[in-house]
């Protein structure tokens, strides 16, 4: 069921994208030879007038094939190049624009049913630097370190991508009683001492993983070892461990760790490592607030703005190297993500299940719109670059050269698609 839903969502987004191209091709008198959903061999097809409508085997794409689209034909009636340059620009741009339109319509439905997430301050630590700076419960954050904040998720993404470091100053603008207030402060620092391991679960003392450069790793412990005592005090389970730390907090003083490995007991004397973490001193809203009327349209539009900004920020992180190739996902990864969201949402009830599915569709549609506008050969954005240059020069770039560039870009995209799909399979299996 989850795979079927994922395929339906993915296919609907692509179909709407291609329909944008199709509609504006027809409006500009361009003949469409085939309008298809999917790639590969045809499963079903029907001829209506000049256009063949096809369903193909692989539900990972689609096409709107126009006469003369990738050739030098200009004098042939109904060919792509026979249309005006601005007509061709509208045809190419229509695909991504239709993705944004679809995303907006779905976002409005979600906001209408669920609401939106304001970046409202829910609590402020009384003795924190944030409280001393004047931050109050009920304030709504509109800007964080110069980054405009419309929704709570804007704030979350920005803070995730821009980790707060010790000594960093925070500057926020908040709305309070219809006024805008500026809050500036340097967050307090929480100091903890850590051994540097993760447990398999909260009740267990078995080491699931070790943190690089931390004391337990340096002492030679391995995943699968079980800690049984600290400074001679027996630690039977996770509850006993938490009780021990509450009574004997870790510090810079060395401690003796006893651990079991393959039925044998070992000891190691280690010095816990200081871990310093800036504390913002406040918590903000993570839920949804109902709205109505024109505000549904407003926050629907802000949802799309958030999706587009997040996609652009992710691309910047990818180009800068802060995100790696392993973070990319293709059609297989997308289907898996939709399926995972479906399984995790079933327990939340039918309404939230379908709202989460619609939210995935919003994300994917907005993402597809942005990606297709990238100025790369074979993508809509690459074609728009050539068309805009033609509009400025009043004459086209050599059609054969343009065609070769787009063909090379298409081949590169196909190779990238194969590599990304291979990466998806590795992550899933």
Protein topology:
Layout: H1 2-27, E1 32-48, E2 51-66, H2 85-114, E3 121-124, H3 129-132, E4 140-144, E5 147-148, H4 152-161, E6 170-176, E7 179-185, E8 188-194, E9 197-199, E10 207-210, H5 215-218, E11 226-230, E12 233-234, H6 238-247, E13 255-261, E14 264-270, E15 273-279, E16 282-284, H7 294-320, H8 331-345, H9 350-372, H10 380-393, H11 399-428
Antiparallel strand pairs: 1-2, 3-16, 4-5, 4-6, 6-7, 8-15, 9-10, 11-12, 11-13, 13-14
Helix pairs in contact: 1-2, 1-8, 1-9, 2-7, 2-9, 2-10, 7-9, 8-9, 8-11
Verbal overview:
With 429 residues, the chain is α+β, with helices and mostly antiparallel strands. It has three domains: 2-114 and 357-428, no CATH class; 117-187 and 280-287, Pdz3 Domain (Roll); 192-274, Pdz3 Domain (Roll), CATH 2.30.42. Helices cover 45% and strands 24% of the residues. It contains eleven helices and 16 strands. It has helices spanning 2-27, 85-114, 129-132, 152-161, 215-218, 238-247, 294-320, 331-345, 350-372, 380-393, 399-428, and strands spanning 32-48, 51-66, 121-124, 140-144, 147-148, 170-176, 179-185, 188-194, 197-199, 207-210, 226-230, 233-234, 255-261, 264-270, 273-279, 282-284. The strands form six sheets. The chain has a four-stranded antiparallel sheet with strand order 5-4-6-7. Strands 12-11-13-14 form a four-stranded antiparallel sheet, with no helix packed on it. A two-stranded antiparallel ribbon has the order 1-2. α2 (85-114) packs antiparallel against α9 (350-372). The longest helix has 30 residues, at 85-114. The chain starts with a helix and ends with a helix.
